[in-house]
Design brief:
By secondary structure, the protein is of the alpha/beta class. The protein contains 17 helices and 18 strands. The structure holds 3-methyl-2-oxobutanoic acid and zinc ion.
């Protein structure tokens, strides 16, 4: 099994996304998490671009460079190479990364030089970098649109000048898997003859959605190293997504005969951190890290999964740090999924007639509110078959948002809420940094539960007519995290309902565990 080296360029190519600029502390936080993910190399920035970037790369090299190789990008000019060396030199194993184009469009139109001049510039840059640092990577920018003979001539010359890694970028996402795989095979055969110690790397962009496919095709054809970003962020349509390439190798290990050192259980956490700090939402259906990547909503699929998980699951969510597969109860869910959800919250002793009553109510609710949650099932059971048994533990402990009032202004955002718990009406008012902060403080005070907000997201759905609120909380007394959602036409109500739903999830879990202990 070949061990593929993973270079993460979230902090360099990923940071080129408009609006995703990070400050020093945010960069360090992401770099720390990349180290937990166990990437082999962190490309920490482009130090010649600004004093801030230089400082961030140097700080990352100082703080994390004893555990992971650190690199940064330089154009093939002395001042850039100096900036890279002076920032990465604090790492135990620094790497200087030089980029220079090889395609005619880059050589003639962008750089306005001849092929010979560019080749000489590249060789000189490598020689200079090598005088500073033993590890030098040379990227032949726009390699996939370059003339093969000139590309190879360049590679041969820079390897002879001392380059220890050759990176083949598909800079504009032009490549297709078969052709790109073939290019890598041809280069690899020659390169390993020239110097078997030189590492062959690829760097693919996603302009036609093929970055992951091209990267995997390169691995199949001999690439030793891949360059990726978390969530596939990067210039234009982005780069190959680290999580997709890594899990592609895991799922089809026998086919690729290759593996990485990535600690896959850290993937989701890393994705969340990058998304939150860069302010870039992850597409919900994004492979591996999207919210719906492990959520099953079709009744047929839910039935199949409950019979055998491998019917519709090729990756265990736990393996990438997602707590569990999510069975979303909607109007399309069948009886099997609803029975399973009821059993999860402790209701499994129905007669057929009782279950049919519950199921009919469930469908009614699912039509009205799209997604049905565990605490909704409590209400259904209570309002149908357990009406007489009003001391049934649990129902009285759930929270229901009855009313809310929010004042959003610059000076004094405040909120008041009225929340029902059993027969009690709980009321609270609070001020906050903003309207949602005030609203959440008021709800927290009304429930009296000590908890902290981990994540809050609001997206528009249904062509912007409705808002989807998504909230993650951490409950202090059990240290557990709960994530829930809610939809409403009012953004503040969607936010409040999502928060209350998350609190109810914690309550339901406690009721179930008490029931189980009592049995
Ligand atoms: O896309 C590209 O060509 C690059 C190089 C610097 C590797 O980002
Ligand atoms: Zn790139």
């Amino acid at each position: 099994m070949r061990r593929i080296i993973v270079l993460d360029t979230t902090l360099r190519d990923g940071e080129q996304v408009p609006g995703a600029k990070l400050n020093l502390y945010e960069k360090l936080e992401i770099a720390r998490q990349l180290k937990n993910l166990n990437v082999d190399i962190i490309e920490a920035g482009f130090p010649a671009s600004s004093a801030g970037d230089f400082k961030a790369v140097a700080e990352i090299a100082k703080k994390l460079g004893d555990k992971v190789m650190i690199t940064a990008l330089a154009r093939a000019v002395k001042s850039d190479i100096d900036a890279v060396y002076n920032s990465v030199k604090y790492a135990r194993e620094p790497l200087i990364h030089i980029v220079l184009g090889t395609s005619d469009v880059h050589v003639e139109k962008k750089l306005r030089k001849t092929r010979e001049q560019i080749l000489a510039q590249g060789v000189e840059a490598v020689r200079y970098a090598k005088s500073l640092c033993p590890n030098v990577q040379y990227s032949t920018e726009d390699a996939s649109r370059s003339d093969f003979d000139y590309l190879w001539e360049t590679i041969e010359a820079v390897v002879k000048a001392g380059a220890t890694m050759i990176n083949i970028p598909d800079t504009v996402g032009y490549a297709v898997p078969e052709e790109f795989g073939d290019l890598i095979r041809r280069i690899n055969e020659r390169l390993k003859n020239l110097n078997p110690d030189v590492i062959l790397s690829v760097h693919c962009h996603n302009d036609t959605g093929l970055a992951t496919a091209n990267t995997l095709a390169a691995i199949k054809n001999g690439a030793d190293k891949v360059e990726c970003t978390i969530n596939g962020i990067g210039e234009r349509a982005g780069n190959a997504a680290l999580e997709e390439v890594v899990m592609g190798l895991v799922v089809r290990k026998e086919y690729y005969q290759a593996t990485t050192g990535i600690k896959t259980t850290e993937i989701k956490k890393t994705s969340n951190l990058v998304s939150a700090l860069m302010g870039l939402d992850v597409q919900v259906n994004k492979a591996i890290t999207g919210d719906n990547a492990f959520a099953h909503s079709s009744g047929i699929h839910q039935d199949g999964l409950l019979k055998s998980r491998d019917a519709y699951e090729i990756i265990h969510p736990e393996d990438v740090g997602v707590e569990n597969m999510e069975i979303i109860l909607t109007a399309r869910s069948g009886r099997h999924a609803v029975k399973n959800a009821l059993a999860q919250v402790g209701f499994n002793d129905f007669t057929n007639e009782e279950f049919e009553q519950v199921f009919a109510k469930f469908l009614e609710l699912a039509d009205a509110k799209k997604e049905v949650y565990n605490h909704d099932l409590y209400h259904i059971v209570q309002s149908t078959i357990r009406r007489d048994n009003s001391d049934d533990q649990g129902i009285k402990d759930l929270y229901e948002l009855v009313d809310m009032q929010v004042i959003a202004n610059n000076n004094f955002p405040s909120a008041s809420v009225k929340i029902k718990k059993g027969n009690d009406m709980l009321m609270s008012s609070s001020v906050g940094n903003g309207a949602v902060d005030a609203l959440y403080s008021a709800i927290r005070d009304a429930t009296g539960i000590e908890l902290s907000l981990l994540e809050y997201k609001l997206n528009s759905i249904s062509r912007g007519k409705e808002a989807l609120g998504r909230v993650s909380i951490k409950v202090s007394h059990n240290g557990k995290n709960y994530t829930s959602k809610a939809v409403d036409t009012d953004i503040l109500k969607a936010s409040a309902l999502a928060f209350v739903n998350a609190v109810n999830m914690a309550v339901v879990e406690e009721i179930v565990s008490k029931r189980e202990q009592a049995i």
